[in-house]
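Students often ask why we bother encoding 3D structure as a string. The short answer is that it lets us treat folding as translation between two languages. Here is a chain of 369 residues written in the first language.
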Amino acid sequence: MDLSCTLRTALCRIKYFYKDGEKMRKEYGVVLVGCGHIGRQHIQDIYYKEQIHLIGVVDVDAERAQEFCSMYNADSWSVDYHDYLVRSDVNIVIVATYVNTHLSIVKDCLFNKKHVICEKPIGRTMQEGKEFANLVKASDCKVLVAHVLRHNRTYQKVAEVIQSGIIGNITLIRMVQNHHCKDWDRYKKLLTDCSPIVDCGVHYIDVMQWFTGTPVTKVSGFGSMIDRDLPEGVYNYGMINVQLQNGCIGYYEAGWSRNLASSNLKEFIGVKGRISIILNANRYKDIEEGDLIELYLNESNEYKTINCKSEYKNMWGQMKKLIEMIETNAPAVPTIDEVFSAFRVVMCADSEIRKKGFANIQESELLLK
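And here it is in the second language, the structure alphabet:
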């Protein structure tokens, strides 16, 4: 393990600036735990920022940790995060590991008075999710769960448009997020940790509740193992069906498979029209204009379009939000109650999917008598 400090670290561990006469922390000592796919996305968007001093990177794979350390100019690397938690120069920990370690790492961070950005979901079971949420509520430290779409400008814009009332009350939400998995070994490992219904579903259930301003009250679901080389009890395709408190219904379809075609549908239908989100990567022209928000209004029978420059996974936006929480005591976005609400819905759906509850229809009942 290499825990050497650079001259830069020794001379300028924490800088300060003054804002409205108040001394504010300008540079934060950050440690990344988890040097995988999502860890890379977190760190490549923030490591060079003026307010960020990357003190260390951690992974159980020493070679990968060393690679990240060199690539992102971290002071040090390790295979064990515990040593960093007792250092006074470490302010923020990014938890980008598999879900089975989220609760234990966050618990250690909060015990050692570190602020945290933690990847979702917040647990493998409902009980773990409750414990995570209660830990956050009881702590004086700031914790931001990485619901990255809350920091995506396109989704923020659509929320503004819907909440302006231009398409009226939302009655139907349609969402699809299927991945054609070329790196099948990576996704198989993810599937043993968490189903796509839970892992990605927390984002989109949160979006449904955010956009409509009302909670999900009913949920059902079904799923299937559509690739046969998965462990017993693992499913890699599912659909959640929901009803929200205001009567709106919706569905979310998600799958990770070598056989599914990639598909992305985000559509919100109201009594006066609808809004669709088309990511710039899925546009057939004008990709350079960013994401496309398409608005249809039924009274005037007109279409309107909005081009929105947006970073899909705005990791720096998340970090800025956490720094705002630290410096001004601003609330988390989403709040831990909103995080747990979305988590609870997908866990209920996951439970229903595993029960495989279907009504049996006898052959005689299919015949017209």
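Translate back mentally: Residues 34 and 97 are 5 Å apart (CA to CA). Keep this in mind for the problem set.
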